[in-house]
Amino acid sequence: MMTLKDIHGILSSLFIMLNKKTLILFRIEFLVVLSTVLFLAMFIMDIFRRYHLHNSVMKAIFSIFDAVSDSIVTYLLGAMQTTPFKNQLFPVWGLVLVILRYSVGFISGYGVPDIGGRRFTEWRNVVKLLGSAFLNWTRGSRFARPLWSLWALQIVRSFYRFWCHIPASNSTWHGKSSEIISESMRAHHEEMEGHTYFVYGELVELQKPQYVLHIKESPSPVTLSMILDCSSELKDKDEINDLSLAFALSRLLRCRLEGVQLQRAIIHDINRSPVKKIIMDDSDDARHTSKIMETQLAFVNDYFNTRFPMVFWRGLGSLYISLLLSLVTIGVVLWLSLDIVKVYKPPEHELVHVVNGVNVDMIITWVFMFFVMFKEIWEMVIYLLSDWTRLLLVCAFAWQRSSPRHRDNPYVLKKLISSLFTSRITAKRWHGLLDQYVFVQSYDYITEQWNWMHNLTTGVVPKRDNGAKPGDSIHIPDCVRSQVLKKLRALLDLDLQEKRNSDGTVNKDGHCLPKVIKTLSDVRARRLYGWACFELHTSSQVILVWHIATSFCEMALAKEHNFALDNPGCVNWILSLFMFTSKQFLIDVDQKKKKKKKKKQKQKEKEKETEFMRYLRSCFADCCSSKSKEVKKKELPEQVVDLYVIANSLSRYCAYLLVSKPDLIPDSFLMPKMVFQTTVKIARDDILRHCDSLESRYTKLRLEAYIAKEDCENVKQGENVVRQGALLGKLLLDNEGVEGCWEILAGVWAELLVHLAPSWNAEAHKKCIESGGEFITNIWALLWHCGIDKSRLWPVDDADENNGCVADPRLDDDDDRYTLQETVPQAEAESKNQQIQNVVHEEETEIVVEAEEPESSKLRSSEPRGMDTIRS
């Protein structure tokens, strides 16, 4: 039996052992290497922050690494100062650690607005540099000159970066851009028709006697029209035009995000012009439109969340200063490295770590020197290959071609522009992902373990609500981009027609999307399904009803084509651990593409085969063929595949917005959370209770759909979202068919996303841009450029008082508030329970028949057809 005295002796011996000089040196070396690896990984990831840190877990890991590494550096500076032995390399290690720590956020440190005051981290770096200077001064060093030179250079860089924020904030194309654009458009909006948008180089002065801002004509500012006129002389004309247009639009969008008001007439007459002529008329290529919008948001993100504006506060001139500082740093590091090689020979009284005659401390130092030089070279490459450098070179070329003094052919500048537009680190300006959420797969999710991590990390890991387990993100399919852009164009064309007055002029007061779902424009479709768009009380309810209906139709389609109704979320999670891919939806739509490739390969192989080989292969196939009857999965028709992908992708994405990004949808404040939590409670505690598989949930939803169809009007006017979704799904299946319903679902979801995009809450979009942005933010920005900031499809709420949108006729009804209470009388509830029991018995009989004959036609033969008893 171990006594307290024995435990005390073990702990004492442990601390004594840890205080041995060799173990102290080993501990310092280990932490130095660990922190260096962390800094290097975070440094490289910084340029890809908006691509790879879209996931909340990855952002949390990055934040934890940042905090841990910062603490390690502080500890090491104190530990190396207080060691009972000397080591000539400790001052070098301390300084290099501070340099690497300082370079982790060399891009994403802070932006021009810097509301949180993150620029003061430069002073924290200066304090750490003073700590390393004290270490160098007290410990002494044989290579003091290069070490002190490197230290002084880092002090200069810290002060320069801190000072750069001041001129960037006062720059006419950064901090003062929104005010200048607003004033210039107000005073000279007639001259700005077409493409006369400021890109770079405008200088302002106060003009007397009104003391208004006036743009100087000499030197003339570079405008979008100047670039479009001269871009034909350059090799990459299309990319140059797109980049210039994206930056001009980003400066206009910053006016909205910074709260600078533009007159309504300006937005309609001027702001709409380049979007309609250059983007909206490009009907054949949705990727081109998306690329311009993504580049625009990338520039906006750089302005608000990165140091790029500070690097380019004076254009190419300030870029040269940053490059010069990096080159000087590389030179001083090389000087220090050579001095270490020439001078450093550890004295006998110094403690060093030698293994088999190899000085480990020297290896660590050389790795340090390599990392510092790599960091500086990488930083220069990032600056040179950025979109900002490309844009400034194009502006320089446009200014030379328009200037009477510099009209000679700038051959060198042309070659430089061409080389920079063909060389890039990554072509991605946005992560291109659609986050997904499936209600019928996640409503029973309990968040105890996740929220335990939330509490453990003190809020770094975001909190989740019960039932709010997100699915795996998917890359945006091209068919989704095309469908959304197609519906957006159609709504904008209709919007333009509605805004014409009797005299043919434009109605400046109309800045709302019309209350129209063109997919449901015919009388029959509107009568059957229009209630789920126009008669529900909130956009949150509309999203959930259509989402549950889409999942219901997806499960029916999977059953029709003999796909198992299993939960793909668990499978995706397991396969993701081993870096495998898995199906995104219940039906594997990628399988068809793989089969086509296999067929082509088989055809090529058959062409090469001889007749004798074909005979042997056929005999072998006949002998090895299994006689057991297996149910084969049916392939989806080609015309259904794209519609299925569009509807499911957008349905799950809109549900994700409702659950995880409620500020991006039109409902105000707590409404999305209230609707979602009530729907989860109804599903978990009532309708889908004890349904532990997707198969049982599908069966129960079918039963609910039967009952809801018998009491159609009350269900439509009620607040039971699960029952409304089941009813809508059954109406779609009964009237359009298992495959035909997807055309309506794909069209409705694309239009719903467009109607959800206009929002008064620009702050929410600005916040999400920092983590990469959302697909809906691209649509929101595009609509704002077209003068649209509201949709008449949704009721006007108090949060939108300042936007002055036309009142929704639904507000005249008695049911103008969303109540979360069931009002079914007791007698009616008892009769419905009896009906459910009867239908359960019929359903069990149907399932037996289905097991014998999988065709859905026999399953549907027992269901009531038509809509004779339903009157909308």
UniProtKB/TrEMBL annotation:
InterPro entries: DUF4220, DUF594. The chain crosses the membrane at residues 24-48, 60-78, 90-112, 317-338, 358-374. Residues 67-441 form the DUF4220 domain. Residues 849-872 are annotated as: Disordered. Keywords: Membrane, Transmembrane, Transmembrane helix. It comes from the Eukaryota. Residues 855-872 have a biased composition (Basic and acidic residues). The keyword Transport does not apply. The keyword Aminoacyl-tRNA synthetase does not apply. This is DUF4220 domain-containing protein.
